[in-house]
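My main concern about presentation is that the manuscript never shows what a single data entry looks like. For the editor and my fellow referees, an illustration may be useful. For illustration, here is how one protein appears when written out as sequence plus structure tokens:

***
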Amino acid sequence: MPRPARYSDPRRQPSPSQQGPRRHKHTDYTKEAASGTEEDLFALLETVTNPLLLILDQVTDPHNLGACLRTANAAGVAAVIAPKDHSAALTETVRHIACGAAEATPFIQVTNLARVMEKLKERGIWITGTAEEATKSLYESDFTGPCAIVAGAEGAGMRRLTGEKCDFLVRIPMRGTVPCLNVSVAAGVCLFEAVRQREVRS
């Protein structure tokens, strides 16, 4: 007598590689990812009042990029900006981790990040970078106006030129023994401090 299906031999089940890539229920794979160019970024900014932006420098891990996109979307970020080189691309893994954010929040990859940061400043957007060596606390910063927050890769941090293009450098106060946070966690802490300040102001 054959055993019921629920007792079927697990050794005969298809492996994850045979089942195909994992899919997230909140990700609409029928939609294109919301990617764009430098020109798209500045066209978008013409339509946004008091923008909040996230700039990622040297974030090459797709899981980190996906988590950053998800956090950015939850915080109402207008766009996530990253260099074309030394950055993860919008792969299916990124889209899966982003949980639907990759289809909604524009991911802008630019050729020259330093030049784009200068253009943002010319348009009245204040740029704050996160750095372990900064003396100013995140909680002493003002994010109520048009602003961009820069997060570098875990360990490597921002490149020197990226840091020089920031108007301010801040640190996240750490109370334990670990030296730094994962980039997506750090981005979330900073973005939701901006959200908190904007909520209080409104």
Summary: The radius of gyration is 20 Å. The CA atoms of residues 7 and 22 lie 24 Å apart. Strands lie at 35-36, 52-57, 79-83, 107-110, 126-130, 136-137, 147-152, 168-171.
